[in-house]
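Q: What structure does this chain adopt?
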Amino acid sequence: MLRLTLAQARANAARYVASGSAILIAVAFVVATLVLGSTTSASVTNSLAGQYRTSAVVVDGLADAGQAAETAERVAAVPGVRAVTVDGQAPVKVAAAGHGKLFGTVTSLAEAPDLRWQRLAEGRFPAASGEIAVGSDSGLSLGDTVAVTVRGARADEGTEAGTGTATVVGEIDLAGSAERLGGVAVYTTADQLRAWSGDVATHEIRASGDGDPRELRDSVAAALGPDVVVRTGAEQAQAASASYLGDTDTIRNVLLAFAAVAVVVAGLVIANTFAVLLAARTRELALLRCVGATARQIRRSTRIEAVAVGVAASAAGVLAGIGLAWAVTRAAIAFDAPVPLDTLAVTPTAVLAGLAVGIIVTYLAAVAPARAATRVSPLAALAPVEAAAEPATTSRARLFAGLAGLVAGAGVLGFGVYAEQVMIACAGGIVTALGVVVLGRTIVPPMVAAVGRVPARLVGPLGELAVGNALRNPRRTTATATALLVGVTVTATMVVGIATVGAAAPRALDEQFPVDVSVDADVAGGLPANLEPRIRDIDLVTAAAPLLGADVVAGDGTRLAVLGVDRVDSGATLRIPLALPAAGEISLSPEQARVLGTAAGDTLDVENAGVRRSLSVVTGQEGQPALVDRVDALALAAVPQSLWIRLADGLSDRDLVAAQNEITSVAEEFAPTAEVGGAVSMRAAIDSVLDVLLVVVIGLLSVAVLIALIGVGNTMALSVIERRRESGLLRSLGVTRSGLRSVLICEAVLVAVVASALGVVLGSVLGVAGTASVFGLDSLDPGSVPWLQLALIVLVGGVAGVIAAAAPARSAARATPVEALAV
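A:
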């Protein structure tokens, strides 16, 4: 039986091409995602390992220069240590004519040649004070004179720590190095770094040595004691790469979630393919039963065929996934991507996961068709090859399960939106989508019939015939539509979700952060008085308002932090209107009013430093701090606590980041312990996430459409085989070849358009609900729904139907009526 099964697989190899292609693409997606994740990690680690490659031991986290020098002497005294260097590093701002302000890090160069990892691309290494080398991507040229400011450095009396001028004498080759990810890279001598940085630099000790690095690490650790972190060079490279790869796992998991969708779509295509393929082999299977094959042997034979297809397609998918990952790394290098991807890391996990996914999905997809194949009666060998028409009705169990899932899912989804709980809404969305899939046989055929009225009127009898063919086999039609439905639903959900989040997030951020940038003191002394004018002098700043802060006793003894504002100055910095109080008023959020047991119009007594004020309560925005007028704050002994800053409108992302960096630099100079926050950094983070998700969605749409296209084409090809006699009869009755092609293409387009439209509707609901569950219904903007993109998705579905049906339609039209009727 095994030899017969393998022979059947070889004989039907052409029919398995579509199934194999679907699983190949799904496996390639999974493998490429895993390989790119490990490649990113390995590439960044290897690029960072360059500075640790000749380092046997690294001592990290030494902030004090004196402690670092003393520790270096103790390391040098350890037997086996050959050379020692102290690497200092500090945040730096570089200002150069024609280049504006550049932000990055300044690092000291090792004096020992075997510990100096930097490679010169041009010029020479700095050898004296006032000389620097810069990274190859800085845009600076040899001979440029720049102003260097170490951010956060404090100038002592009689010194010039923190700032100075320098000449660029060298350029360091940073190609393929993660050092480029930290902004402009500046290198100078250790003495010059100490002169600029004061006590803000962090220090790292690197040592070269002889013998096993792990044994030397243990010897150094024993000499320094338990309070110091000692690693080998390889271990330090791994630890350093973790700071660059904090979000890699998140992005990889998102990609794997979308790969899972591709696998589900592929599984539906494969199950449909096997079902239709076995239906086309009804006579063959019946003849096997006639000559003595048992039902168990038929099932086993079918499953063996599925495993054979799964193994071959999965192996090809693994190779394709590795090739795709390699192509991405080559493209990243060609376009000088900021993340180095020069080390292709193919892990055993990626290969085994790809093989397991492909084989298991193929096997599971063939279980139901294999069971159906055993129901073939030997008498079916005498039946014609055409598949009989199926009833359009749905079993009561399926109908009940689908309705229950749809109603329960919609209820949970609605509750998640009402409660603004995204995880609850997500669970409800999944159950709702499953309910729609289960009810597919009830929903899709009527929609095909309704949509088919248009081509039936335009094309005439041939259009009516196309609609009838789609309705004659509702199982096959629904299975084909479901494959495309799942992919389009997820794609539409992400497209709508990203668009609505993009519109709702800034509004939500404005409510949470009503100002673009804020500077808040974290010490009792507050902010220095000279910080505000320096902030106002920054080019992109349009308004700045100081706020006075105090902790007062309110009402019955509750401690309350209040901020004193000037209605004119503070109002100029706000992105949304807040209830700024006048003299004698206090503006409280609804939550603060509930805690204090007061309401609008009531009088609230507040006290601080022996001074009591009776203030009239006004209702403010949810989440805002307690606000009082500046005059009242001064009376309550408030001190400068915060600074609200508004930036110019219409700035690019690059300008926003530059403005925030400059504000941070000034704040670190005048108030080193102050915290810089606000909406700008949050908006930049959200924009970055949305950009990544948009790229992922485009990839998902491509994969889903491609797999679904294969499924539609495969079903059409097999239906052509089933209906060859029917096609021959139509030809003998006068239908031309072009007319027969039109029937088949029209049928495929109907199914594809219905599936795409249903997926867009369901995805739009889920996308809007997801945004509402995060930001609330009030934040939704109906105008942000990308109607044009959704219409394009439906159009792409229709075009996919045309492409998928083109080859099968040409094959059906090529056969003469006599040949078709002879089957």
